[in-house]
Amino acid sequence: MDVRELAGADAHGLLRRKAWEALGVWINSRIARQRGVYVPNLFQIYWKTLATDGNGSRLNRPVFVLSERFCENFGVKPAVAAESGVPAPGTGDEVNFYRLAIQHSEGLSKDQVFTYVRDMLFRLGDAAKQGREVRLDVGAGILVIVGREASFEFSGGLGAGAAADVGDGEHKKVSHLDPMLAGRNATGGESLAMAGHAASGAGSASPTRRSVVLFAEPSRKALSAEEEALFADVDALDPETVLAAAEEAPMRTGDLEAFTRTRLGQVMGVDPKTIADRSIEDVGAELTARAASLEAQLRAQRAEGDKLEARLRAGTPPLPLGARVNKPARMATVDLETPVPVGPDPYKMVGDELDFIKRSIKKLLSSKKGEGAALTSNGVLTMAAREFMDRKGKSFRPMLVLLIGRATNPDFTTGPLHSKLAVISEMIHTASLIHNDVLEEDETDTSQGTLVHQEVALEVGNKVCILAGDFLLAKAAVELSLLECSPVTAIVARGLEAICEGGMQAFRGGDSPEGLTLEDHLEATGASVGELIGNSCQCSAILSGHEPDSTIARACHQYGYNLAMARELMKEADELDGALRKIRRNPEKLRDTLPSYVRVPILKAAETYPEVRQLLAGSTSPKLAAMLERAGAVQMTRELAAEHAQVAADALGVLPNSATRDALIILCHKVITGTPLK
């Protein structure tokens, strides 16, 4: 596989290639200046000094080192063991995505470059993990992975062919031959770069072959024949006389300056002839001025962006749990009477991806490798895997993540990172279910307690339930770290924190139900139910290339939060409606029929009949059920759900028009009308 195949043939393929090519150009610009390069979680290139002559000139060579984390994550190993003395990762210049976007990407934003480079990294790792052969151009050379064994071939002026003989007769692959570049000498004169082995110091063997190169950085455009002729005589030097040529540097000054002017002309975007009569210092000064001007423009653009953001914030309060962004124009009427409009089916749009996600979760929970084998072999996690695979409702959160990812992506597609986020959100939710309402020691009623107690067995025990939930959270944390996106990690963590906060609020409300208000209960419900979904939707937009606090990302949070609230309220209304139907036949079964989490209908009815609050304290009086019906508790709760669904639909107004956005609107209708999602 080469870059084109690895990037893919979908609409994102071209953008992935552009981002990767920008990375390659940047790497070459660093290597040409003998700077180290660090691409996090993939590789680093550092410079190793092999010899120093009496004048202080150094013979250096670049050394490629594959990231240990990349090797561990994808089962890749280097073809040759790393040399000793490898500097710590990050010693060289770490990739700057702002610089890649502005200087090298031809139109991509910083977030797009970051997202697509990271996407390419995951695609590379997945291909290597599958044992596929990969030859990936990374600017300074070709990363070759065959049978999960990686080597690196420096290209262009940095390579000396497929292999080279070194002074001691040892035969080494070019991936670890790593040609030398001579540093600038003490007097500041230009130096030559050589491929081969150091030949200085007592007893060192003379190299049998050296080839001359000047700089490693390839042009962004091919050199013309006339430009090549400017330094053709330099390339024609006999490799065996390279040291003599280096000692006679004044004789080569014209060639070196011609070569430098050609390169500068390409950087400046002008014909090299137009700067033929100018000194190198003069041209360098112009380049410095241009760089300063570019930096000033960038600062001005950032300042304008900050002013715009400040104006937006001035009209919008800080984003608390479930807060709304500035209300856009109404997208479509979403109410209890309006039928579900005709349009794309939300589930079918991402059905194939959801099947893949279910298989991924099942594989994570059934893996027998590592120390988790003891946990994955018990009935609790077998139940969890069945929950993911068999229950239709479990597709809701992953479906939202994938649909938001599509709707906010410039090409309306999703990538592997969106799928990973969908897996993470569902695992965290299931862990919270397992932890929820753990049975007390003397409880025997299987209608109480966790999902585990109800699905597996009452005697499973609280300790196993807690450990199983912790295990799922640990798995989710591992997957979250693989996204390698700090904003996403922080936002998902806040969603988990909100679940805990919501649970504590609900617990305090259960201790004193008489003083519980509807606002307090909705806040607790929003924290425990809405925030994780809202944050997952916001993160999906971030993975599509949007800033964490951008209008679109915040709108996606608003959509997910309010749709989750609408779904929860409809669930409470439907539970109460079913309970009231049964109570009409046998009023004495009120306590057994009404689930404990149904509180919003009771609190809404309490606005008319305060006596119904006694239901929250455990009262079973039949007359209270009659009050619920007279107050219209079910209908009022459904209307409240419709309000949340309308807010969710309106939030989509900032998204570009697409079939996926239409599907998200249809999903709002399906939630409040009880239409099956699948």
Which structural traits does this protein have?
678 residues, magnesium, alpha+beta, four-stranded mixed sheet, 2 domains, seven-stranded mixed sheet, Farnesyl Diphosphate Synthase, Isoprenoid_synthase_dom_sf, 54% helix, Polyprenyl_synt, transferase, metal-binding, single chain
Gist?
Helix content is 54%, strand content 8%. The chain is of the alpha+beta class and 678 residues long. It holds the Pfam family HU-CCDC81_euk_1.
Report on the architecture of this protein.
The protein is α+β, with helices and mostly antiparallel strands. It has two domains: 3-204, no CATH class; 331-673, Farnesyl Diphosphate Synthase (Orthogonal Bundle), CATH 1.10.600.10. Helix content is 54%, strand content 8%. The chain has helices at residues 3-7, 13-32, 68-74, 97-104, 110-129, 174-177, 225-230, 232-235, 242-247, 253-268, 280-314, 346-349, 351-366, 373-376, 379-390, 396-408, 416-435, 451-455, 462-483, 486-511, 518-543, 551-585, 590-593, 600-605, 622-631, 633-651, 659-673, and strands at residues 37-39, 43-52, 58-66, 77-78, 93-94, 134-137, 141-146, 149-154, 163-165, 171-173, 180-182, 193-195, 211-213. It has a seven-stranded mixed beta sheet with strand order 5-1-2-3-11-12-13. Strands 4-8-7-6 form a four-stranded mixed beta sheet. Helix 2 (13-32) packs across helix 4 (97-104) and helix 13 crosses helix 17. The chain is elongated and about 100 Å long.
Task: Indicate the topology.
Blueprint: H1 3-7, H2 13-32, E1 37-39, E2 43-52, E3 58-66, H3 68-74, E4 77-78, E5 93-94, H4 97-104, H5 110-129, E6 134-137, E7 141-146, E8 149-154, E9 163-165, E10 171-173, H6 174-177, E11 180-182, E12 193-195, E13 211-213, H7 225-230, H8 232-235, H9 242-247, H10 253-268, H11 280-314, H12 346-349, H13 351-366, H14 373-376, H15 379-390, H16 396-408, H17 416-435, H18 451-455, H19 462-483, H20 486-511, H21 518-543, H22 551-585, H23 590-593, H24 600-605, H25 622-631, H26 633-651, H27 659-673
Parallel strand pairs: 1-5, 4-8
Antiparallel strand pairs: 1-2, 2-3, 3-11, 6-7, 7-8, 9-10, 11-12, 12-13
Helix pairs in contact: 2-4, 2-5, 4-5, 10-11, 13-15, 13-17, 16-17, 16-21, 16-27, 17-19, 17-21, 20-21, 21-22, 22-26, 26-27
Family: Belongs to the FPP/GGPP synthase family.
Domain CCDC81 HU: 18-77
Cofactor: Mg(2+)
